[in-house]
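Subject: mismatched residue count in predicted assembly?

I count 1398 residues in my input, but I want to confirm that the predicted structure covers every chain. Input:
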Amino acid sequence: MGKCVNHPETETSYKCMKHNIYLCDQCLECRDPELYCKYRSSCPIWFLSKGTRKLDESGQTPAREATCRVDFSPDGKSAEVPAGATLLDAAGKADVYINASCNGKGACGKCKLIVEDGEVEKTDTALLSDNEKQKGYVLACQSRVKGPVSVRVPEETIERKLRVAGMGEEITRRLQGRVTEISPMLEKISMELSPPSLDDPVSDLDRLKRGLKKNGIDTNRTNIGLPVMRQLAAAMRNKNWNVTTSIMHKACSSEVVAVEPGNGAHPGLGLAIDIGTTTIVVYLVDMADGRVIAATSGHNRQASCGDDVINRIVCAEKNGVKKLSTLVLSTINTLIREAAEGAGVDFRDIGNVVVSGNTTMTHLLLEIEPRYIRREPYIPSISEFPVLKSGSIGLKANANAAVFVMPGPASYVGGDIVSGVLYTGLHRQEELTLFIDVGTNGEIVLGNKDWLICASCSAGPAFEGGGIRWGMRAEQGSIESVTIEPVSFEPRIKTIGDEPPRGICGTGMIELISEMMLTGIIDQRGKFQLDADHPRMGAVGEEPAYVLAFADQTPMDEDIVFTESDIDNLIRSKGAVYAGFTVLLNQIGVSFDMIDRVIITGGFGQFLDIDKSVTLGLLPDIDREIFHYYGNSSIGGAYMALLSADHRQSAGEICNAMTYMDFSTNTAFMDEFTSALFLPHTNLEQFPSVSAKMRETAN
Amino acid sequence: MGKCVNHPETETSYKCMKHNIYLCDQCLECRDPELYCKYRSSCPIWFLSKGTRKLDESGQTPAREATCRVDFSPDGKSAEVPAGATLLDAAGKADVYINASCNGKGACGKCKLIVEDGEVEKTDTALLSDNEKQKGYVLACQSRVKGPVSVRVPEETIERKLRVAGMGEEITRRLQGRVTEISPMLEKISMELSPPSLDDPVSDLDRLKRGLKKNGIDTNRTNIGLPVMRQLAAAMRNKNWNVTTSIMHKACSSEVVAVEPGNGAHPGLGLAIDIGTTTIVVYLVDMADGRVIAATSGHNRQASCGDDVINRIVCAEKNGVKKLSTLVLSTINTLIREAAEGAGVDFRDIGNVVVSGNTTMTHLLLEIEPRYIRREPYIPSISEFPVLKSGSIGLKANANAAVFVMPGPASYVGGDIVSGVLYTGLHRQEELTLFIDVGTNGEIVLGNKDWLICASCSAGPAFEGGGIRWGMRAEQGSIESVTIEPVSFEPRIKTIGDEPPRGICGTGMIELISEMMLTGIIDQRGKFQLDADHPRMGAVGEEPAYVLAFADQTPMDEDIVFTESDIDNLIRSKGAVYAGFTVLLNQIGVSFDMIDRVIITGGFGQFLDIDKSVTLGLLPDIDREIFHYYGNSSIGGAYMALLSADHRQSAGEICNAMTYMDFSTNTAFMDEFTSALFLPHTNLEQFPSVSAKMRETAN
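Triage response: the counts match. Full output below for your records.
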């Protein structure tokens, strides 16, 4: 018996004779080499079972545990799982992407599958309509396997390419002018050195340093590692003293990370990576001119461990940080591969990387203990990271690539916010700016070039589609814009890519609720006022719902509806954000009219309707001119830091300048939150223009 | 078929199913896990031969190649070697230490063994006496195995503990006062940190840095690696925010290499290591007070690859640098283990290491390409080394221990000379000092606090016992002092440890030749003048020889003699050294009377008789008062650098200040060398006091 090499909490008697390690059942049955069994690719299971027998407590060989095969269409993937495992477990093992917002608790209703053949043991759920149940829909986390089964991933939940606002050229245009001088972390210097002679017998390394000095490198602060020293003599002589040196610039010193024979070095490629809790975005950049040559994005595979950072940390505590790290790395590496293949370049030419993410995301990526982030007093292990080598993290780039991780000042205000501030430039301006990032967490920064204060509130995932029956991210087919005809109450919807509607994203929800309130479909508490027999009124179980699109217009052949719980969830989210910045302002004695600029960022969608956001009560009712919507500012800041040493230094300065205000024990926050659980707000005086509009439409 | 993992030049069909690697015959038969097969300890040979069969070209299993077993006494070790292998090969495989000065060319006659059982095929050699041949003596490198054989390592060649000038306490006394303030590279700082709270929510790393700042650490220049970041959260909380941080101080930055729970850090242990081509010395030092708590020394196991650095480099080119690196590492690690066991301490507490050695030795230790050292224009790959981590080299110390390697300015003036200069302090003094290190290479430094010039000449290994029939290092039983009665020509000898004589070391040879010349036993050319029938005259073959000790007084039951070739070798060695410093002085226009101090260092023995060294013509005939013999100055400088940052910095400054003068194309050197091939010199005017003494004794 021994401890499983992947799951040290498990004792097992399966020993691999090839690797001299123990592996548990879970490893033996895995199909995902990245997730469970790093040895699997070189180690077929038969090798293990031949090598040893599994023994029971009395030392006897027990009967082999029955496993059931689960086939997934349309992926064509499959997994063997023990009887009693859930379809969600099986999907994980088969590497089939399924959104499981609530981490398998049966609460979100997102992990829908259709059983096509075979039977499963399922717990009854109100989260599926009768129509769905008839069609064989089940929730993956609530269905246990008892024999071989074939399931299909329904059209509406298949992972689609996220819409990144514009690809390559468009992004390049948008980012143009943000970097004046390119100064990468990994610099390549080509030199023609003079050969040694009896009159000039300095060592190879000193000869190299002499050349570097001529190229402006401070060699007194430049280290060199043993592997490079070992290759030095050959590398320098191989192409007749023509060499290309790669130098990694760190905060307080530099390091020669490679010396290669020959000249003609290209500055190489860079990566800007935004690791969102939900979505990961990768820009592949030409370091010579700053062009974005490819952009890719995808769902963070950690989604199978829950929607928000708290669930991810819980999962890391239970299954080890390694698991979460592997999940996010496999997502990122897939995106890097796609980007490199798309651009027709070699990923080994990637020498510079900037990673931006919230504190939990960066901890999980780097396999750093996250458990104290969620425990009072909410302490991250690391705020500012040294420049790391790609090889030590496992990113698909040159092993010597320099990796800069955006620093984050607090457990709930992370590097993504610092990156956003960097991108918007508010830390360099006289004007007082309020920066609001709406994601699963709502983060708020207030300040200017002299001071910065920040806070965070738990907004919940509603704006990104979490906890909303037909909520989804801003993908192809999501409803991003809604207007409602005041008399007929008929909606006019617009979807991303003008595809048949599959659900509704954040911007769509904001417009929908704003419109429903102004047209009187709902009241200020978010309760339906429309007659139950109105053609646009439906129900989910007992609960009334507004029908946004009828089944015959959707690819799922299901009505897309918005229920009172959905409205309630959204109100709670917007209430938290509104309470957040209100309390922050109150605490430091700043009123709305003192603010010169409001910046909104987040993953709602492409175009945020400011006026409707005010109507909802998400944003304050002030001059619309001062509002600016920036979309994903985290990736923008990462791009800037990728290209410029000045910007990397600014990131550190922003992080250090930020004062964090904790709301967790703040009673004012709870009061403000409660007041904001109205449309637009309990206190209508704070929303004069909305009041006026409401009066107008009422007349 | 595949490439052998240890010998990539060999194709083999032996595949290890356990490690998925190929291993060649040499690996399959090895007995030395360190030298040949790193997999052997976990991989018994049966596993390999079971896994696959060896195939011949037609795909058939060929007849197994015959091997012969060689047993060595008194070690009790044995090896299987193919028929036709030499006993030297067999000794290497069995890890039996044999001195093979000439690297198996059959030229030095050192690798004597006695065949006790079985037969070998031997080449006839004049290097063994008839008496020896009768007793079954063979030369290991000239004897090929043709069947099973038992051999004995003769008493006189068994490795003995070298005499390190004094152990622990004695060394400590000698070194006292050389370091005023202890400032290790790896500093341990114990701190009691304040626990985090909502009012003080800084990250774990920032909390640690805050503590370090209070302890005087410049945290802006302090890096931290990923492995430490990963342990940080647990380490800090494990003992209630009491932690001990290990910080490695490098030239231009520092690094947190470990954070451990709890307080009460001891400054730990340090190692000063002198890697000589022939001898390795290790001091184990208490970093708290600088006490040397153990000292060990042993023969550099690279000796099996030849006596001098050129042979070692040739061997590295032929067999790979790895082999040489492994040999020296295994020697050092054995010595460290002995020292740690002797002192009753844990080698994992060793946090600081300083290594001093010549340029070839440091290159081989660190597996850095040495081949250009021996090729014009004689370029070392690295002169100054960054502080390295012990784990990256493979030293038996804490894996995070900081390793400082003494810098060396040229291929033939290395870190050992810089260390010696540091130890003698000549670089800080007004007085003009001539520093002469006599080893296999003779290195010369001239200068003071304002300038340093250096050169090197190939002295040959005679003073360390190489190329001398009964020559040996300054070990127990070596003759270290000789006087000869002028009338009877009877010698009075003194051995180290007052043991029966086993050979003669450098100081003994200097005294012997000086005495033989003054008593007229030899003339100024080194030719014998004594009657052949004098009881003290013997012969080796045709060659006359002076008998220093008769067989019945020696443990080998053999006469210890000194032949004319021996005398010639020694004259050539002293001639090279004398020519070296003479040319150096001439070139820069300094005469002997301008020199304030002459320092002699080297491995001759404990006590050098200056007057007799002058009589020999090794040292100039000037005021004896200004001569100082320092023994091993390289280890002394290493000790100082181990304890003090100032001294480490000085080492770099000395290295940079040294101007190297190359003699390889210098005709003046050849002239001076030829003139010095007399006793004491062709030009007796340069040796007035010796001339006077010669006239005196002649009368």
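Residues 275 and 554 of chain B are 31 Å apart (CA to CA). Marking this ticket as 'not a bug'.
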